[in-house]
Amino acid sequence: MASKLFYQSRLPRPALDRAEGIYMWDISGKRYIDGSSGAMVSNIGHSNPAVLQAMRDQMEKSTFGYRLHFQTEASEILAEKTAALCPDGMNRVFFVSGGSEAVESTLKLARQYALAKGQAQRFKVISRMPSYHGSTLGALSVTGYAPLSAPFEPMMQHMPKIPAPRAYLDGLDADDPATGLHYADMLEQKILDEGPDTVLAFIVEPVGGASTGALVPPAGYMQRIRDICDTYGILLIHDEVMSGGGRTGRFWGADHWGTAPDLISISKGFGGGYVPLGAMIARDEIVETVLDAGGFAHGHTYAGNPLACAAGTAVIDEIHRAGLIENSATVGKYLESRLNALMNRYPFIGDVRGKGLLLAFELVADRVTMEPLPPGLNAHSRLVDIAYDKGLIIYSRRTRGGLSGDHFLVCPPMITTQGQVDEIMEMLTAALDDFAAEAGLGRSA
Ligand code: PMP
To answer: Which domains can be identified in the chain, with CATH numbers?
Structure first.
């Protein structure tokens, strides 16, 4: 019988039977390595016994308590644990069920904070091109990815965009602090162009996700954007939906630069693939100001449900108990070195980048000019399909503002061992060989 389900396209995939650790099996018994943790979600791997037990225990007690009727112990505990991981002065946690909801929440809390401070003229949220912040209309307004936003243009807010700091495309040295300043200056210029009094916030993925393929900011960038936001009284939002939770080798992506935002969004690895869960974390003073001024006019029905929160707490506990942040750092370094070595074999790999186990490689026609592969090759979908047939799941996107260019995220769960990286690399090399042959691209022996 034809499926009644639909998502964004016709993409026939086999039915999932079961999953354990970094492996998944379809109903025919074929095994896959979850080389992208789904969409960078299943950070602690599948079927973790401690998380499943915590969920069972919570289910025996209660699975839902509406937030306007009850506080729950489960949500209090997760809020406490989350706040303890945040920069000083960021202790207020607002639960949601996913990344887009988390981003929407940051935008709306920022706006109400400005209103409460008598700054009604502030409403513009500057973001980067490309970027991805979610699919709901508000989050899409700050998303810099034309193919997703074009159909909805008339229905969206037109938010100012600045270029993401893709030093590798612009031929700049990402380790040179002058490069960080060069891109951060674009933020200041945009603020001046828009009128500083009208700008509410700047939203940034500290380590880029799907839209940029694990883009790491150049030296000095994160510190400088913090300074610029402070100069103009603009809130800084770190969208850590993908980079938060330890995958980069630190709990927050921004921890690599030691900078603190005013608002954070997190999801994906926060629920770890066990439950739909996300959160906004805000500076205490922002929340107090908004609550004093009459309250936050925003909320989602399933927010803070005890089952999701119990799972979220168990995920954080597992990350710490098993040393998964450290593992992401060390195994990530090894995987990154193996990906870098692929550049010797495949001249059409133009760049390898990322932090910890948030890693990506980009395919190009010419490594010097970074000319993209011909769109007709459909590299972004062909390589994924070839790898999938071999039992390796990776995640891809077209980049360059959505016009061309193909990048691939290799982001296995944070429990991945060095031996499993070797297994992934064997399958990936075989997939790249097949792709090169099919696309008529040269490679070294
Ligand atoms: N922000 C970032 C940085 C993301 O990577 C994503 C998801 N890819 C989102 C927001 C949206 O999250 P969700 O799909 O859970 O709504």
So the answer is: 16-47+323-439 (3.90.1150.10), 51-321 (3.40.640.10)
